[in-house]
Structures are given as structure tokens and as C-alpha cells.
Request: fold
Amino acid sequence: MFSKKNLMALVASVALVTAGSAVAAPKLDPKLPTYKPTSGVSGNLSSVGSDTLANLMTLWAEEFKRVYPNVNIQIQAAGSSTAPPALTEGTSNLGPMSRKMKSKELQKFEDKYGYKPTAIRVAIDALAVFVNKDNPIKGLTIPQVDAIFSSTRKCGYPEDIPRWGQLGLTGAWVNRRIQLSGRNSV
Reply:
């Protein structure tokens, strides 16, 4: 796979690309030395995880391959829930996730390897909730969104919200069911 020297080159390259590609990146420490590619880097690098991070991972991979053309990089973007098992089973080197690992996922990794996986934040994810243009609702609170999309209601709303009337809409909207749609569940 990778020698310690080559792995350090990989980490430095990813850090370099990350710092260079961030839109609102903080200024780099001027004492930080300029990255110098090392010779002899080759092998395979696999990434299994978040589809949200797929474009970013692809851009990083393209830049890494420009510097290290003898590294074969495979990116499988099937969702964040695919990353922990791939890391734990050793079928992936990287596990990009758009959420934190769950405690049971962390525990499985630690049980196998004797240490926790290293998490490095590289981006911020944003979510949005939209309604049809003909819907008269003026806005939704976080507890209301939680009660619409979740049965656990961890944000404190007292009941599930399956109908628009529960949000104050009247007339033809009072008994209309809220139709949910969204991205995948992994």
C-alpha cells in the first residue's frame, strides 16, 4: 500500500489542496514551508462515503493525480452510512461523511484497530426546506421541521405534524397531508 513517507506525502497533498480550494480559507501561516512533491508515490487510494462530498473529493483527487499520476484513486459516493463499515472492514482508506460517526460506528472501528478513527473537518454542509410556490405557509420553525420529518421530535414539538392545518393553514389546506420528498437516507 503506502509507506510511512508516502502516506505523509499524501496527507500533506490533501492538506495543501484543501487549503487551496476552500472559498473562505483562513490565511496560511507565512512560516509554513511550500509543499514539495516527493518522488516514488504510487499505489491505490480508495474513498467510500458521502455523496454530498463527492464533487469535492473528485476535485481533490484530480489535483492529487496531477501531482502524483501513479496513484490510482477510486471514489465511491454511496452515502455517509457506507463510510464507517468500509473503514472498519479495511475496504477503504478514506471515509468522507457529511455527519459525525455514530457511537456504535466508532466503537466497531476502535474494537478492531484499538484506536478511534481520525476525523478532519473539510467543509460545512447546509440543508434547506422548500414548499410548493402555491403553499401559503409563511415559514417554519426548527421544532416544526423536526416534527414534520422526524418521529423522535428531539427539538421539543409536542406532536408529529402530518397535515398543513396543524401549522395554522386553513380552508383547502387544513386537512391536506404534507408530502415529504428528499435525498437518500444513507
Remarks:
- The chain has five helices and two strands.
- The first helix runs from residue 4 to 21.
- Residues 1-22 have pLDDT under 50 and may be disordered.
- The beta strands are 43-49, 71-77.
